[in-house]
Specification:
alpha/beta; Rossmann fold; 8 helices; about 30% helix; binds S-adenosylmethionine
């Protein structure tokens, strides 16, 4: 990673700063995260043993830790939110996996610690789980993609689950259907119909009560809708030449626990899909 620039530029606050506990809960309470997202990302990442990997927009370090457990080394998690990083670091302190967390704004080139300078342009795999859909402007989207391209080794792969541009914004009758994903523990509320580039989309996660913990209040965050064409253009401007969209799939455990019928409406109109870019 580059050793130029400042650690964090314009963005000193993040809507995620107060969201760490709820976001950490979402990985296990929202069944789509555990049984579709986790399973699919594991498969897409493939063999990571001994590879340096960046987890960009790492949040509380959910995938940073998973990458380390899958054998990647070194693993560096990068995020702009001090609140999310505080939780990531406290988990690392309690159960060290040897991962490093850096506070950086991905819309600027990543300034890095001297020990990682040699990794700039040499990283074979970069993961960014639900991050590109938080680029607030077209310029930010391109800038994030440029940061990724700078860090990635030629021929390396960028894996980026993001808001599916074709997610279920409308019911079959044509009206908004905010409740489409309610059975899966969350809702998506679009500000515009049809969505246009830059349209806000509010994701609200609702957490079930559990006997062994305090109630977790619902969490709402505002993502941004970008069209497939815009993602492709931004990645192309950053130097990616091969951009594909991949669907996620349910784990065998998820099928056994919930049954195929439970997943069918989600899989028909998934809220997220994965960009795989080289
Ligand atoms: C929806 S959360 C996902 C967190 C984590 N990847 C996960 O799946 O658990 C999005 C994360 O991206 C981070 N993020 C958004 N824009 C960013 C930027 N410009 N630079 C660095 N991090 C950013 C947020 O702070 C937040 O932690």
């Amino acid at each position: 990673m580059q050793r130029s620039g400042t650690a964090v530029t314009e963005r000193d606050e993040s809507q995620f700063d107060g969201a760490a506990d709820a976001y950490e809960s979402s990985a296990f309470d929202i069944p789509v995260r555990e049984h579709i997202e986790h399973h699919s990302i594991r498969r897409l990442c493939g063999e990571v043993n001994g590879k340096p990997v960046l987890d960009l927009g790492c949040g509380t370090g959910l995938y940073t830790r998973r990458l380390a457990r899958w054998g990647a080394d070194p693993v560096i998690g990068v995020d702009v939110s001090s609140g999310m990083l505080a939780t990531a670091r406290s988990i690392e302190d309690a159960q060290p996996l040897g991962v490093t967390y850096l506070r950086r704004d991905l819309t600027s080139p990543c300034a890095c610690e001297p020990q990682y300078e040699h990794l700039t342009g040499n990283i074979p795999l970069i993961l960014a789980v639900y991050v590109l859909c938080y680029a607030r402007t077209r310029e930010e989207l391109t800038a994030m993609c440029r940061t990724v391209r700078t860090e990635l080794k030629p021929g390396g792969v960028f894996i980026a689950p993001t808001l599916n541009p074709d997610y279920a914004v409308e019911s079959p009758e044509g009206a908004y259907d905010d409740a489409y994903y309610a059975a899966y523990g969350f809702t998506l509320t679009a500000a515009d119909s049809p969505a246009v580039n830059g349209s806000p989309v509010t994701l609200t996660m609702n957490f079930p009560e559990a006997a062994d913990r305090k109630p977790v209040p619902a969490l709402s965050v505002e993502a941004v809708w970008w069209s497939r064409e815009t993602y492709a253009e931004a990645l192309g401007e950053a130097g990616f030449t091969d951009v594909a969209w991949r669907s996620m799939e349910v784990s065998p455990d998820g099928l056994e626990t919930y049954g195929r019928a439970f997943w069918q409406p989600y899989l028909a109109r998934p809220h997220a899909r994965v960009i795989v870019a080289r």
